[in-house]
UniProtKB/TrEMBL annotation:
Pfam families: Acetyltransf_7. This is N-acetyltransferase. Keywords: Transferase. It comes from Zobellella taiwanensis. Residues 2-147 form the N-acetyltransferase domain. Gene3D superfamilies: 3.40.630.30. The keyword Transferase applies. InterPro entries: Acyl_CoA_acyltransferase, GNAT_dom.
Length: 164
């Protein structure tokens, strides 16, 4: 049975492994470590199958026009290669959105495949008047407002995303 749950103390090494395996390179695993070290992971969801961690998802606070307005950036999402395309990522994303709602966050942005993220309620962020600090991302930059009214402005991720 697939279990999606909040990260627990002691999950760190398993998460590191699954992020590394999903992307087949160290960059995203290093990013998760950097975010963790800086206390910037606000939602951390783990997918577990028969006791093994097979997926992970992190959300960290973003700034809008330099202000903390209670919005989160969803990244990275990682599913163990052999377990991809079986609904694990979708289940973690749904659980993480619920968790963000329960924790009273105001909204979530994500940079990803529009066809995939639309199914969870994300829309092109430009429709809400939100733009990415990264140029040229177009409709791959998506947003989901959990509270209304949604703010407008330029969204910047935590400095760890730029290697800070
Ligand atoms: C992207 C990822 C998190 C999705 O998790 P998953 O458990 O495989 O996804 P689900 O089974 O819930 O959903 C499947 C959908 O994901 C999308 N998807 C999965 N892998 C994809 C890929 N390589 N390219 C494009 N879309 C992909 C598709 O829309 C797919 O829908 P379909 O099966 O109807 O075509 C997972 O495949 C992964 O870890 N990939 C490698 C790391 C990565 O690229 N992460 C995302 C960027 S942060």
């Amino acid at each position: 049975m697939l279990i999606c749950r909040t990260e627990r103390p002691g999950d760190g090494d398993d998460i590191d492994e699954v992020v590394f395996a999903a992307f087949d390179r160290p960059d995203e695993a290093d990013l998760v470590l950097a975010l963790r070290e800086q206390g910037a992971i606000s939602v951390s969801q783990v997918a577990e199958y028969e006791g093994a961690v097979i997926g992970h998802l992190a959300m960290s606070p973003v700034l809008i026009d330099g202000e903390d307005l209670g919005w989160l950036g969803l990244a990275p999402v990682s599913v163990w290669p052999d377990c991809q395309r079986q609904g694990v990522g979708s289940e973690m994303i749904r659980e993480a959105i619920n968790a963000a709602n329960e924790l009273d966050w105001a909204g979530i942005v994500v940079l990803g495949e529009p066809a995939f993220y639309r199914r969870f309620g994300f829309r092109p962020a430009s429709e809400l008047g939100l733009e990415s600090a990264y140029p040229g991302v177009g409709d791959a930059f998506m947003a989901l407002a959990l509270k209304q009214p949604a703010p407008r402005g330029r969204v910047s991720y935590h400095p760890a995303f730029d290697g800070g």
